[in-house]
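Hey L., structure's done. Input below.
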Amino acid sequence: MPVFIYRALDSRGRTHEDEIVAESSVAAREGIRKKGLFPVEVNDYAQGRKLPSLRSLFTRSGNFSATNLSDFTRQLATLLDAGLQVVPAMAILIRQSRDEASRRLLTQIRENVNEGMSLEKAMGEHPKIFAELYVSLVRAGEASGALGMILSRLADYLELQQNLRRRLSGALAYPALMVLTGTSVLIFMLTFVIPRVVKIFTQAQQDLPWPTRFLINGSYVLTQYAEIWLLAGVGLGAGVYLWLKTDKGLWAWEGAKLKIPLFGGLILKQSIARFGRTLGELLTAGLPILDAMTISKLVIGNRVLEHWVDQAKEETHKGGALSQALERSGYFPPVFTDMVGVGEESGRLDSMLLKVSAHLEDESESTIQTMMSLVEPLLILVMGVAVGFIVIAVLLPLFEISQIIR
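Output:
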């Protein structure tokens, strides 16, 4: 629905300027009157706004980006910690926003909250922007009275994930470019260069060395059966995609990811660190452990680990120890389960979870840096071997031909 900017007077003659979401200007005026105000001027924000700033030209879009979400969460947490209520805090954020889509979204949320809806339900009406985890944490914050703190921790989590994605993207940009360039060069040589060189070898009627024969056969298979390879690749991709849509296929894939050498350990550490940090934050906010585990499971991102968390939750509900239940899964590392056990015995489970999660995050960061430092030289080595093999396969018979001519 459109956003309207209005100027109205109250019963004492004081001027009020704000925004309201309504289906039309008539509905907007009715909504203003319901607030006890007398509308003087009502304009459609899309038509009555001032010339856009340079920044707004680049930020106006139909999506609420991950950066916008983390910034909004951080700012809202700061305002709530400063003592403001949700509606006034949202009004400040709306005035600060330079993006039309963001203003419309925040205005809708503010209007819903102003009419008596909880912030959690108001955000839940926009599932494409506020994920289930986000809404659940807001619900926990409202229930515990620590919404500001929960949002601040949530902003930390969003910024951490965003920074991690940014670092991974930056680190993988150069290797991806190398792979793309090298693959393109190899395909070009096998499909265009090698077939022309083959004619020279055929005319010479010489026995070719095995590297050259291997290269010629590979070029022949690639060029003569290109359509078959393409159809096979498309069919295989479609089959894998459909298989992953099934519960059995998704379960098998999620379990296989955790067993991939090097990468599996990294995925496991990051998933457990997210789970432990979220659980620790929720326990710090005063949530019961069973409710906190239900919410924390949403950040894991792996169905196998989620299953074992559900199992641990059931055992904890029956009076069992959380550390022992997680240890029996075989996926949670001893350092995690031991720290959880210490936290259970000392009554400081929340702080222990935060500490061990920070430790796993540091280990993950170190692993990522190590992997990134090895990727570039490894790719250079692989591409060098491939190009070197092609060069040798081409030069060997040429060298033999030159010897015969002499």
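The chain has three domains: 3-50, 61-130, 174-406. Residues 120 and 139 are 5 Å apart (CA to CA).

-- N.
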